Amino acid sequence: MASLIAVATLAGVSIVNAADGAVVDHFLVEMWAEKIKVGEAVDLTIKAVDKDDNVIPSYTGSIFVFSESEDIEYPKWADEIIYKYNDSDAWIVKFENAVKFWKIGIQKILVFDENDDSIYWEGEIEVVDKETVVANKEIVINSPDNNSTIASSEVKVSGVTEASHKVIITINGDKKIETASDEKGNYSINATELKEWENTFEASILDADNNVIGKSEKVKITSKNSNPIMNAITVEPKDDVESGTRAKVTILADAGLEEVSIIFNDALIKLKEVKDWNYAGEITAPAEAGEYLIDVTLKDSLGHTTNKQGAEKMTVKAKPEPIKEEPTKEETPKTEPAKEEPKDVELDSAKLKITGLKLTKLKGKSILSWDVIKEASSYNVYKLDKASWDKKLIENVKEAQTTIYITGDKIEYDDFYVSAVWVNKDWAEEEITDLSDMTKVQTGPAEILFLLLVSMLLGYMIIRRRQA
């Protein structure tokens, strides 16, 4: 038997019909347990398969089961430990309570084809002392669902396992509730006084000697029988906020809430969970100054609700009036009046000769005026220099008059002349050579002339009196 080679067990094998003409290559054997107690029978399910582990439905050969252990009890159905497949087996045969071992340790089980020892299966099973707890029977918890949340402090725990066995439900690792599965393998208990938040359940199946022979996977649930809790709320900014300013609201509360909302300035605003325990949103400072309260509502998926009035507040200051700036007056650039296009014509000098020269004597000054000439752009006023007999330009005026002030300390009469100036076709000013008639203007002090006149009058009156 040393030449036998161990092969894989049934786990993960695809059970399909083999192709036509396929032949049996080996056996696959499924044992209900990998560890049994001394004297405890093990079930075997034996399948004849091809090299690809596909079941051969036409196999009707004979097999025999044996072990190298001397302390083994073979199945009662075996005739000299040989079993022949038949059509009713449908190519798979299950033997309940097939083999028992009476010796502790790792024991081998072998299955061979009676006529071809190259078709075989070899497996191992651990045999332990009777006092050793063995977890091998299947038991599952169907309710409540794993990772579910309940809105109560109690829940019904139910599942399925072997029929008519003792079952113990362990709650949170220490509390144990005993029950039993019925003839169909169903069991249930009512778990009460659960802890707030997380609770764990584990089901165990016991044999007749109260040894645990199977355990379920642990099931975790959240028991939530209280309203959501708000830990903190912050508003930034919140003091002396200028109207129209956006502010961030952050609330720390239970994670995974169905709804977190606030009421601010009569508006409902829902916050979003940006990360566990943190909910955030934005509000806008109202237009009117004042103190505004923020009300908070928390709601979980179970319908529990927490309302907190005036959880926080914002103070708003009036937005300052914008400074009204006087509109800048744009200075209109001063433009010279458009000059008339000079006429490319020969002007009659007679039309530009000064006429109407008139002298108006006033105290301390004399006004020299003349007739306006519409063709003239300005006028030149000259004075005759008696020493050189040359004309000297006194001033150029735009108006048809000029003022001559009486200066000096003796009476003099000076000769004055006026000529017209016009703009020629080249935009240049051109003076007409014809002058006005000469006029004499008094340029001595007027007071001296007055005294002379008074003296002459007094002398005349004295002479007349003497003659009389």
Commentary on this structure:
The protein is mainly beta. Helices cover 5% and strands 46% of the residues. The chain has 1 helix and 35 strands. It has one helix at 446-467, and strands at 26-31, 35-37, 41-49, 62-66, 72-73, 82-84, 92-101, 105-113, 120-128, 139-143, 148-150, 155-161, 166-171, 175-180, 186-191, 197-206, 212-215, 219-223, 230-236, 241-242, 246-253, 259-264, 267-270, 272-275, 278-284, 290-299, 305-317, 358-362, 365-369, 378-384, 391-397, 401-405, 413-423, 429-431, 439-442. Strands 11, 13, 14, 16, 17 and 18 form a 6-stranded mixed beta sheet that branches. The protein has a 5-stranded mixed beta sheet with strand order 2-9-8-4-6, with no helix packed on it. Strands 20-27-26-22-23 form a 5-stranded mixed beta sheet, with no helix packed on it. Strand 30 (378-384) and strand 31 form a beta hairpin.
The level-1 CATH class of the largest domain: Mainly Beta
Helix content: under 10%
Mean pLDDT: 79
Major sheet characteristics: 6 strands, mixed
How much strand?
A: over 45%
**Model regions low in confidence, pLDDT < 50 over at least 5 residues:** 1-19, 446-451
Assigned CATH superfamily of the largest domain: Macroglobulin (MG2) domain
Structural class label? mainly beta
The CATH architecture of the largest domain comes to: Sandwich
Radius of gyration: 66 Å
Number of strands: 35
